[in-house]
Write a structure and sequence with these properties.
heterodimer; A: alpha+beta; three-stranded antiparallel sheet; 3 strands; about 55% helix; B: alpha+beta; four-stranded antiparallel sheet; 6 strands; transmembrane helix (chain A)
């Protein structure tokens, strides 16, 4: 053993280097997992609260109820204008814009085709040909 | 080494941290569900929420007297009683009726129908639309609504439920 440089033979330092590498990789993996968890925790409820799912469904549902009440009245311009005005004011007070237009009404078959539009800025929903069947549709 | 890393990452159970937003989303869902139950067309009771809105007479006591099979006999404010059944005990709520008094003047009226105090900073809001028609069978209108429906036929009413946790 004599004559060999003791610094070359001392291999304990390699373990320190390897441990450091393992810890570094572990920390990176852990930070990625934590970051993803934080993102999931923040994004999911944000999507629920910000996306106006209930507003869209409620608006569409209520228009169907109007049609079911009396589909023939949908051809009355003043009637639709009154409903649109009230709905626009109610939704407008919370920053949502809505509009309704009647494409055609068939009083014999109790059906109607409507165009419904709702937007809160980031989300826009346009039902270009909303079909209402007052006989076969249950509400 | 990569295979081991993948195994660890796939197998690790990561618990998503609960933020205030998660609680708000849950609370909003609870409120939406309660209003959905009331707004569903029940074969025996009809649309209970619509009955409650229709009988409200804009009095200072906010009486809503309407008996249903689902929620039983009522006295005082039946809507308050029904919502108390549907919402958890640790949730307080206020309820407003919002409507256009006269569509020609574009005035929106807000009436507090259930008042349980000042909402906390983390309060959330759930909403439902109810449309009252003149002479609709099964849904007799109060004297107050009869007067407004005379101006707006039909009368669209927004039921706004504000919830907060205590």
């Amino acid at each position: 053993m004599a004559g060999i440089n003791p610094f070359v033979r001392d291999e304990g330092g390699q373990w320190i280097l390897l441990s450091g590498l393992i810890i570094a990789v572990g920390l990176v993996v852990l930070s990625i997992l934590l970051n993803q968890a934080m993102m999931a925790g923040g994004r999911s409820p944000e999507a629920i609260l910000k996306f106006p799912k209930d507003d869209i469904r409620e608006f569409r549902w209520e228009v169907h109820r109007w049609a079911h009440h009396n589909v023939s009245r949908l051809s009355d311009g003043a009637y639709i204008s009154n409903l649109t005005n009230q709905t626009m004011l109610l939704y407008g007070s919370r920053g949502i814009s809505v509009s309704i237009s009647v494409l055609d009404v068939n009083a014999t078959n109790q059906t109607a085709n409507l165009t419904l539009f709702i937007t809160d800025g980031p989300t826009t929903c346009n039902f270009r040909r909303e079909y209402v069947d007052c006989i076969h549709e249950s509400i | 080494m990569i295979a081991t890393l993948l195994l660890v990452m796939e197998g690790a159970v990561v618990v998503t941290p609960q933020t205030g937003l998660v609680l708000d989303a849950n609370l909003k869902q609870i409120g939406d569900d309660a209003l959905t139950v009331l707004d569903t067309n029940d074969p025996f009771d009809g649309i209970i929420l619509k009955h409650y809105v229709a009988v409200w007479n804009n009095t200072t006591t906010n009486e809503i007297i309407y008996d249903t099979i689902l929620f039983g006999n009522s006295s005082g404010n039946a809507l308050n009683r029904s919502l108390s059944y549907l919402l958890p005990d640790d949730v307080l709520f206020n309820l407003d009726f919002i409507y256009v008094n006269d569509s020609t003047t574009d005035e929106v009226t807000v009436r507090r129908v259930i008042d349980n105090g000042e909402p906390g900073a983390d309060a959330v809001v759930s909403r439902r639309l109810v449309t009252l028609f003149a002479n609709e069978s099964g849904y007799p209108l109060s004297a107050y609504w009869n007067s407004t429906v005379f101006l707006n036929d039909p009368q669209v009413v927004e039921v706004r439920l504000t919830l907060w946790q205590v």
